[in-house]
Amino acid sequence: MNKQVFIINGSGGVGKDTFVELVSKVFNLSVMNFSSVDKVKEIARIIGWTGGKTEKDRKFLSDLKLLCTDYNNMPFNSMSEKVKEFTESDAAMLFLHIREPDEIEKAKVAFGAKTVLIKRDAVKQITSNMADGNVFNYQYDIVVDNDGDLAGFESKATEFVKDFNSNS
Hints:
By secondary structure, the chain is of the alpha/beta class. The chain has helices at residues 16-26, 38-46, 55-72, 74-87, 101-111, 130-133, 150-167, and strands at residues 4-9, 31-35, 93-97, 114-119, 142-145. Helix content is 51%, strand content 15%.
């Protein structure tokens, strides 16, 4: 079976998780989904973060991720563990959510990943923190415009998987 790691990015609210769900659903593929900030969120909850998505919450998580990266590279190490789990699984695709351009490039090289940007012009880009503010500061391999309704987005997920299958 062909397996591929994809790094997915896009501003908050553009449909990244929906895209992953559609890719899985459209072709009944086993897909894994993991964010470089998942473990950071676990730490944040311990110290009082309640799961909010306000500008203040997003900046807090971004800053905490940077601290964890500087301290012991925990976010990247947790992604490495997820990639190892993926290689040993039946899943065909792993989507890693990463915001920071330097971290995207590091993971792309380390995991042989392809990069995907989900865009939705109707959603205003968040710029209140470094992670969200740098979403468009990377040259992605694939850009998916979520510019219509759910059926149109599903069609784009279908094309994405067809391209994956034809290039594998």
